[in-house]
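Reminder to self: tokens first, then the designed residues, so the page reads top to bottom the way the pipeline ran.
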């Protein structure tokens, strides 16, 4: 009889694609996912899977290249660099109009209510709205407003939401941490991609950068324009160094822009919170995806990250099974 799994999918930007590999490895080994709680990208992947649309979602994200990701960025001039309508509109097309209570098993998407400074658990209502609120990364995506609530990424308070699944009475709790700092021996698998036309790419980068700018004032109170490195989302490949086996090595240089500074700070906070969550409610299986696997914004690296998620999940599950 297959073991019933309560699956916890953490936040971590593009590294969330690794959740797909973890899910595929669980299913390949005969586990039955009976409950999911997710935050940010974890809520998106978990919600898509619960709706039975993960194969279509995977096909879409694996086909995205640098320019495709650029085209999905609908620039905002309000409380986030991107409105997110193109991205989440496509996800809505894949998933359809589904209510959480009609999913085949319990699902929780965790968001943060800024106005009331508390977690919000979506366990009923519109699945698409829940995923969008949970993944409203501060500084990147505009918040979701519901009545007097201003909802942003759940990772602000709970980047690894284990508590919602504790009462599920499943056989095993599997948690996927996307911000691990201890697995430095893992490298992102190499995927050979065709080169793109640099002239066209640079034109798009310049166009985006002209909108995504942050202003500060120097010591003399003169306005200075800072161009954010949101373009790191898909800086033409070839810029990142490679190890001897061809796998990518992430440069640990400091932030190159205000946006990158905000998101690196966000990740530092999430990593600290995650350690508290794990210590308070230790999962039976912890799948630790290294933070250095890719940058937060590299949403064109789905294929590599799915492979990496499956590799690390396989090792974690083999270790668990050997103990059981």
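Designed residues (324 positions):
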């Amino acid at each position: 009889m297959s073991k019933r799994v309560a699956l916890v999918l953490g936040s971590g930007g593009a590294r969330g694609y690794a959740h797909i590999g973890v899910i595929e490895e669980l299913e390949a080994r005969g586990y039955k996912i009976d409950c999911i709680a997710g935050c940010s990208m974890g809520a998106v992947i978990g919600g898509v899977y619960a709706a039975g649309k993960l194969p279509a979602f995977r096909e879409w994200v694996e086909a995205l290249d640098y320019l495709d990701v650029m085209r999905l960025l609908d620039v905002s001039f309000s409380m986030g660099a991107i409105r997110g309508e193109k991205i989440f509109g496509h996800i809505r097309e894949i998933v359809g109009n589904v209510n959480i209570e009609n999913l085949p098993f319990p699902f929780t998407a965790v968001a943060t209510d800024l106005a009331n400074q508390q977690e919000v658990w979506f366990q009923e209502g519109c699945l698409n709205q829940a995923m969008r609120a949970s993944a409203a990364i501060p500084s990147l995506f505009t918040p979701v407003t519901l009545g007097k609530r201003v909802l942003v990424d759940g990772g602000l308070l709970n980047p690894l939401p284990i508590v919602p699944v504790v009462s599920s009475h499943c056989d095993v709790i599997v948690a996927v941490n996307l911000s691990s700092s201890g697995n430095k021996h893992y490298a992102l698998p190499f995927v050979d991609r065709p080169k793109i036309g640099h002239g066209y790419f640079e034109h798009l980068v310049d166009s985006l950068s002209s909108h995504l700018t942050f202003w500060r004032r120097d010591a003399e109170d003169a306005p200075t324009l800072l161009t954010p490195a949101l373009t790191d989302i898909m800086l033409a490949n070839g810029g990142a160094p490679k190890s001897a086996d061809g796998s990518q090595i992430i440069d640990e240089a400091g932030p190159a822009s205000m946006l990158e500074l905000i998101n690196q700070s966000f990740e530092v906070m999430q990593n600290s919170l995650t350690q508290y969550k794990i210590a308070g409610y230790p999962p039976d299986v912890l799948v630790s995806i290294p933070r250095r696997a890719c940058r937060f914004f590299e949403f064109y690296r789905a294929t590599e990250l799915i492979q990496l998620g499956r590799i690390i999940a396989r090792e974690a599950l083999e270790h668990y099974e050997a103990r059981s």
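Residues 100 and 124 are 5 Å apart (CA to CA).
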